[in-house]
Design brief:
This protein has 3 helices and 4 strands; from the N terminus they run αααββββ. The chain is α+β, with helices and mostly antiparallel strands and 160 residues long. A 4-stranded antiparallel sheet has the order 1-2-3-4. The relative contact order is 0.15.
């Protein structure tokens, strides 16, 4: 009598001597003899004028999120509802006892700018704090102040 496991065909033997080419969109591991191909950040639209300003804004935001900078310094950069969201989150965070501060503060290590249209940009960033990586995403919109000046203001913020 045959059992069910005997009816299953054995898997084909795959030779491991032949080099395997990665599939389209796949990043190869750094095996000897293969050069890894890393994806380059893609920026849509003309993001060059905003890139440096966005990086400085994201660094300041990271310092606020890690309690190294006061929240009130971000008020001029943010829409009122986003600023209220940030202050309420930081108020809840302030009730938790702080751990010992590390020698290096929080820092932004990558910024990717995507121009949605001429007056709006979505920025994704990665911060490193206490050896952990976290993601931050903001939307900046070009708004007119009461003086008639055009300024970039954060209208949406999320982090994980």
């Amino acid at each position: 009598m045959r059992t069910a496991t005997m009816l299953i065909a054995p898997p084909p033997r795959v030779p491991f001597d032949d080099p395997v080419q990665p599939a389209a969109g796949q990043i190869p591991l750094p095996f000897p003899g293969l050069t890894p191909v890393l994806p380059a950040p893609v920026e849509r639209g003309d993001a060059a004028p905003l890139r440096e300003r966005a990086a400085r804004f994201m660094q300041a935001l990271v310092e606020v999120l890690s309690a190294e900078r006061p929240v009130r310094q971000m008020a001029a950069w943010m829409a009122p509802d986003v600023y209220a969201q940030l202050t309420s989150r930081m108020t809840v965070h302030a009730r938790v006892p702080l751990r010992a501060r590390s020698a290096r503060g929080a820092r932004i290590v990558s910024v990717h700018v995507s121009m949605v249209h001429a007056e709006a940009a979505e920025i994704a960033g990665r911060m490193v704090h206490r050896g952990r990586s976290r993601a931050i995403a903001v939307r900046l919109e070009l708004q007119t102040t009461h003086r008639g000046e055009k300024v970039w203001r954060c209208t949406a913020l999320t982090w994980a």
